[in-house]
Amino acid sequence: RKEVEQDPGPFNVPEGATVAFNCTYSNSASQSFFWYRQDCRKEPKLLMSVYSSGNEDGRFTAQLNRASQYISLLIRDSKLSDSATYLCVVKSLSGSARQLTFGSGTQLTVLP
Amino acid sequence: DVKVTQSSRYLVKRTGEKVFLECVQDMDHENMFWYRQDPGLGLRLIYFSYDVKMKEKGDIPEGYSVSREKKERFSLILESASTNQTSMYLCASSLLGAGGETQYFGPGTRLLVL
What we know:
The structure holds two protein chains of two kinds. Chain A is mainly β. Helix content of chain A is about 0%, strand content about 55%. By secondary structure, chain B is an all-beta fold. Chain B has no helices and eleven strands. In chain B, the strands form two sheets. In chain B, strands 2, 4, 5, 6, 9, 10 and 11 form a seven-stranded mixed sheet that branches. A four-stranded antiparallel sheet of chain B has the order 1-3-8-7, with no helix packed on it. Chain B is globular, with a radius of gyration of 13 Å. The chains are: A mainly beta, B mainly beta.
């Protein structure tokens, strides 16, 4: 079983739609959680951290459910520029303090 | 802005060749990482370094070695390239302390081994 699992998609949604991605992680000792964004043929970049109480950054909302070991990302009012692959990232204490584990990503295409 | 640069965007090598991939960061970050990214497998950690001359194996170190002689530079070496090392290679850096969870990536090197 992969340590971090995501639905690869693709998710094809119209502009203005709301879309949600989930990610599950297997290590209950995981401590920190993030969403990274990777545009086509580009490097990954941090989108947002995920806090226990949930957090919002503009149109993006991240949630963490420790009991069920999943993380979610909600994008409201989708824009064409949101088209990218979204990577779920987990940091676990059982591994090296400096290591992150990346999911394989969920591909989103926002259609005009 | 943090800048991480990689020596090549595209490389084509032959089986058995020795391959050097170089990465340089300009933000005085202690941590540096080498990943490979393959479809369906995501990013997998090859090696990382938290200080000059220090290195630790990641999840898939076999067939690779690394060198960190200066803080800003982290090199990945394929001693004898094989076709299964065809991949996208990404270098990243981060701070050692708080905030170190944010990794800054270079643009990647697409390596094709024939």
